[in-house]
Write a structure and sequence with these properties.
The complex is a heterodimer of chains A (252) and B (315). Helix content of chain A is 36%, strand content 27%. Chain A has 252 residues and is α/β, with parallel strands linked by helices. The two termini of chain A are 36 Å apart. Chain B has a single domain, classed as MetI-like (MetI-like fold). In chain B, the strands form 2 sheets. Chain B has a two-stranded antiparallel ribbon with strand order 1-2. In chain B, strands 3-4 form a two-stranded antiparallel sheet. The chains are: A alpha/beta (252), B mainly alpha (315). Chains A and B meet through helix 2, helix 3 and helix 6 of A and helix 7 and helix 8 of B.
């Protein structure tokens, strides 16, 4: 009943000589939320960026192993990276809206994909802003600079912007770490609704958040995948000592 | 706790006094200089002075051709230097990998800005006039058209002179665009060029403009490099030729002519005049015009930079 969306096999990643990810093998389920937890510098964000090849933009990164999305090896030499990134959207730790209007931010993705028809663009804007549960707040502020919105609104706008290119998978890199509790709650609510349509992978520092939003949880430590299981299992009955120590706050 | 009396910090007070004195001395000199030029020069300025050609062996008339020449040369200079500088900077900052070779190029560009301008003048004479100009004449069979000092080569040389300024300020402007904005664009499936065109360049534009304006004001004030590149002692006729297409003729800048140049004109009036007492007020007037011109350009650049900072400050 549960389909596997992403398969990662024996993945190693090096920054120059330093190995940042060690032999990671992991399956990510379709239309589920998978959380990556672990202390700072454990490689979870790096791993997230493996999934849409954002690490390609950094010099001296070397990757070994295989990553399949819907059965396609995304590290195949003939693969179109641009097209991959359209299918695998990303939301970053800090809102990185462009210093343009709300409307222009949302239509940025569709426009670079060649959609010029104003009517279609308007529809995309309304649909994605509704999906991101921010339509009511910004529908009268379409032409305002997006940077004049509050931090929480900006982050939800980032999610809407990512949705506008119609991805299958959404990667979220600590999407709520810079937000207040109310805005965080809104983002988490949003993740709940979005997982009906999208496969979501989220990196988080906040363990309660991982417990609340995710179906599966992976615990990383020093570049290694220590444990990967259903979230309830990880948080109630972890099989490894290190995982237990981390989630009970004994280190990290 | 016991209340201690504050000790007098003698060295602190002393150094502050010295620094202050230096500062006021500098401001004093500046005011003296600008004030003198303004007071002596403002009386000469009139529409006739700005438009007319020099008369009576430079003891009368105006500086019209010199202003025209300065504007013409700087205009051509912009056309040469801006595309070259901006595109090289885009290549260096966005495409070129960080290797030993690109680092050497970056350092060279920075050092190029420190080369004395007379060296650029000699370079222009040797490279543009004698090599390229003479070469063109030979290939195109045009006799002596390109192989002589002319407006074209003066602009080209000034373009090379200000190129480092344009490149460095463009590099800075490109660098100041946050990486997170590029990430956002790539994350949405944009290609490198789409990201540069839609995200990077719009944000870097004020910085690039600032650099360009500063470069222009530097170029307009230079004298040394154009000494042997076509700046004329006295040339009442403007370097203009009619460009005719079909029956229609438009007057255009003729880049193969010699020209008068404001900065050079001041030099000439100061050193070659037959009647220094009579030319003195005209000199002050010309200097005032030149300073006003560069000041205006600098102010424009400052306004651009201010707006640029305000945009960045909001992020």
């Amino acid at each position: 009943m549960k389909e596997i969306k992403i398969v990662i096999k024996n993945l190693n990643l090096y920054y120059g000589d330093k190995q940042a990810l060690k032999d990671i093998t992991l399956d990510i389920l379709d239309k589920r939320v998978t959380a990556f937890i672990g202390p700072s510098g454990c490689g979870k964000s790096t791993f997230l960026r493996v999934l849409n090849r954002m690490n390609d933009l950094i010099d001296h990164v070397k990757i070994e192993g295989e990553v399949y999305i819907d059965g396609v090896n995304i590290y195949d030499k003939s693969l179109d990276v641009v097209n991959l990134r359209k299918n695998v959207g990303m939301v970053f730790q800090r809102s990185n809206l462009f210093p343009k209007s709300v409307y222009e931010n949302i239509v940025y993705g569709p426009k670079i994909n060649g959609i010029r028809d104003k009517k279609i663009l308007d529809e995309i804007v309304e649909k994605t802003l509704n999906q991101a549960a921010i339509w009511d707040e910004v529908k009268d502020r379409m032409n305002e600079n997006a940077l004049s919105l509050s931090g929480g609104q900006q982050q939800r706008l980032c999610i809407a912007r990512a949705l506008a290119v119609e991805p299958d998978i959404i990667l979220m890199d600590e999407p709520a770490s810079a937000l207040d509790p109310i805005s965080t709650a809104k983002i988490e609510e949003l993740i709940h609704t979005l997982k009906q349509q999208y496969t979501i992978v989220i990196v988080t520092h906040n363990m309660q958040q991982a417990a609340r939003v995710s179906d599966q949880t992976a615990f990383f430590y020093l570049g290694e995948l220590i444990e990967f299981d259903r979230t309830t299992t990880i948080f109630t009955n972890p099989s490894k000592k290190q995982t237990e120590d981390y989630i009970t706050g004994r280190f990290g | 706790m016991e209340v201690k009396k504050r000790k007098k910090d003698i060295s602190g007070v002393l150094s502050l006094t010295i620094v202050r004195l230096m500062f006021f001395f500098l401001v004093f000199i500046l005011i003296l200089l600008l004030g003198k030029i303004f007071i002596e020069g403002i009386g000469v300025i009139s529409p006739e002075f700005l438009l007319d050609e020099p008369r009576d062996n430079m003891t009368g008339g105006g500086i019209g051709p010199a202003i025209f020449g300065t504007v013409a040369v700087t205009l051509l200079m912009i056309i040469f230097t801006v595309p070259l500088g901006v595109f090289s900077a885009i290549y260096l900052n966005e495409y070129a990998k960080d290797t030993f070779f690109t680092r050497v190029i970056r350092t060279s560009i920075n050092n190029l800005a420190g080369v004395p301008s007379i060296v650029f003048g000699l370079f222009g004479l040797g490279f543009f006039i004698l090599f390229i100009g003479k070469g063109l004449d030979k290939v195109l069979q045009t006799g002596l058209l390109f192989g002589q000092p002319a407006l074209l080569w003066a602009s080209a040389t000034l373009a090379v002179l200000v190129l480092p300024i344009v490149i460095v300020s463009t590099l800075e402007a490109l660098n100041s665009v946050p990486k997170s904005h590029r990430d956002a664009s790539y994350g949405l499936g944009a290609t490198k060029w789409q990201t540069i065109r839609n995200v990077v360049l719009p944000q870097a534009r004020p910085g690039i403009l600032t650099g360009t304006i500063l470069a222009v004001s530097r170029g307009a004030g230079e004298t040394a490099p154009i000494l042997f590149l076509g700046a004329a002692f006295f040339l009442p006729n403007l370097p203009i030729a009619d460009l005719c297409i079909g029956g229609y003729c438009i007057p255009m800048i003729n880049p193969t002519e010699q020209f008068m140049y404001l900065a050079y004109h001041i030099f000439i009036m100061a050193t070659q005049s037959s009647n220094p007492t009579k030319t003195l007020p005209l000199q002050y007037g010309s200097t005032l015009v030149l300073i006003a011109l560069t000041f205006l350009l600098n102010i424009t650049a400052i306004i651009f930079r201010y707006r640029f900072r305000k945009i960045l400050g909001r992020l």
